[in-house]
Amino acid sequence: MKLKTVQYLITLTLVLTTLSAGFSQTQKPKSPPASAPGNSRAASFENGEELVYVAEFSRLLLKKMDVADFRFTAGREEPLQKANDPGVSSNAPTPYSLKLTGDISSKGFFSRLFNVNFRQRVESVVEPTFFTVESTKRTDEQGKRVRVSETTYDRGKLFWIERDPNDPTRVPRTATVSFTGQMQDVLSAVYFLRRQPLEVGKSFEMTLSDSGRVFQVPVRVVEKKRMKTVLGRVEVLRVDPQLYGPNGLVGGKGQFSIWFTNDSRRIPVSAKVKTEYGTFDITLRKVTNPPVRGYLTQKS
Hints:
By secondary structure, the chain is mainly beta. It has one domain (3-299). It has helices at residues 3-14, 43-46, 80-84, 108-113, 188-194, 295-299; strands spanning 49-59, 62-77, 97-106, 118-127, 132-142, 145-154, 157-163, 173-178, 203-210, 213-229, 232-241, 254-261, 268-275, 278-288. The chain has a 14-stranded antiparallel sheet. A hairpin with a 2-residue loop joins strand 1 (49-59) and strand 2.
């Protein structure tokens, strides 16, 4: 099994664990698009939240081996312009950005068996009103190989650059892509879907940016059922982003499903990826609402 394929599947599975989603951050529209969600969906995580997951792999006689740990955090952040500009009145309405982080690292027997050793950290800054990503930073470690990339979104242009911090002489990889509408990266997409009015039978298409490329991702809300989770036995909605195929985020055959709680929080409690290599199951183990620091602390 190729390292890049394995890492892609695991990373997408939960960093994508909601995937699907976005349209690009161009000029701020004067009014939100018809499909834009209300702020009620955002409240559950904007005030501070941490989600912890474990990923397991199964194939033939190999049953649910630990593969990776996932940790996601979300919270408000005061914009740097506001913090550094003494001319801005402290009594003026204070805009804020939404700061998202995702950490994924390989673990367990699976890592040793397939010689898969990786860690990835993603940091996203999102404009919360229309929920469009403004910047993405990613550190990707695969054994001794390390890549650091940054993506910015400005006036209908996506600018992506990837560097090798271990070899400053290596020419960076770059890409520039035009877009219109909202945009999500693989991390902000998780939270974007949580804001949506999901209903069984509903289908929609979303736009996603990853590594300097833009993808159109069809999404279907497949079913509603009850599921045993760390939160108890709760009602969940199954969402299937169509990631696979010749024009998909992942080439080849496969199926990706995510289950969200059918309540105002829309917490992703489980995800499953079926591939030719086997099945990956991602399960929520812990939800916390840590004390909010920085911007919110200063405002309290």
